[in-house]
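Page 47, continued from p. 46.
Same chain as before, 499 aa.
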Amino acid sequence: MTEKDSETTLRNNIDAVKTIVRTVKTTLGPLGRDKLMVDGGGNTIVTNDGATILRELDVSHPAGKMVIECAQTQEALCYDGTTSAVVLAGELLSNSEALMNKGLHPNVVCKGYNEAANMAIDYLLDTLSHDCDSNELLEAIARTAITGKTVDASLDAVASLCVQSVQKAGDAEKVRVMSLPGGGLRDSYLFNGAIVNKDLTIEKEIDGKHSIVLLNSGLEPQKTEENIQVQLDMQGYTQFKSSANDDLLEQAKLILEQMPDDGGVVFVRDGALDHVCAFLYKHNISVVRRLPESTMRALSSTLGIPIAQTPSDIECAAIGKISRQRHYDVNYLFVDGVIESDQSTLVLRGATITTLEEIERGFDDALGVVSLCMNGDKLVSGGGSAYAAMASHLRSQAASTQGRSQMAIEAFADALEILPATIAENGGQDPLDCILALRHEIQQGFLHAGPDLENGGITSMWDLGVFEPSSLVKQAILSATEVTTAILKIDDMIAKKGA
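Result:
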């Protein structure tokens, strides 16, 4: 393999990453544009959420897949910042091309990038990070994450809902989000309980207090994974069906034993045969079937009872208040326990399903970043200001580094500035003017400086209340650096034999 072939492979990989970066780059920032994604079946998604766009992209190039994995890691750990990580990775690779054109070996570039990443993260944690010690700061973090997903008039109300939800649940993973079409975002609220988007198998009035049991199996014949064929005559088949029905009715009677005389409601994870539901209905017991595992866990937390694996495992019924609401021709059951529970559901309202889906994605990000800061993470000023401050710090430190790594550190600093520059560009400003002004302000000690998208020029992100978790910025730098160095070390692409 010649040196020219190695260089061609590397540049092809970089070009593949650049293509993906161009796709998501215009979505960055509060004034980022949306993407309309359409699949072969005509299904559409309108979003500016980087994680969603990258997840739905049909990418076949191996280097492109590596960048998408980088974004997935960012999403899994920090809930937000996927677009920032991908854009930074693309700029690092682009700058590495210029360095290699000047004669730097890819390994020298990788060494310099790793040194720069460590210096930037140390500066981020030691100088730029601040404690998040008030609800006002938590709400500001939520507003930053939601901005661009909804109208500004509703930001304060929905940010407060995010903070209340996480504080009640203790963690973002425990907060359920339910989107109900109709009304406006201002009509969103926090429901203290679980919401089930199913209805009773047999229609009846349900509003009020009921005895409730949770069943993790079903009221139907169990299917086996074994492939067994049995030949039966008509009499044998009739006896087999009768025996199966008798077994199911025996299970239904076990449920009856745990219910009071006035009946109740059974929530079932799997299916329930109609004649079993009818038998229970005669005894004033309603059945809700085929519920997701997450919904069953939410009901268990709301009611304070375990999920029984079989009817014989049911220990007792719990008292819960159930009400039915109808939205867009779909019935929803609202279940609230009588005990104090940390289970809550964030109910989002919106005009259309399409806009609700995008708002829900924004809320997922907001709940996640609020959870990070509430559980001990520090915060930094957003709007790209932290990246610009780190870039200035790296330039001041680069001169103390010996050898060609100094050039890579300076290139890393230039790459960090792509984030505030892109935010400014997407807001209709000149990115070069923004970067030059930022460098001047930061040199004067104004570390929270960022692009002012409303009035133009530079302003304080701290005064505007634009914040993000420090771990989000740290992970974006780590992920972008790691995927960049991995791609720079590839000098050939070889087909491997199939499995």
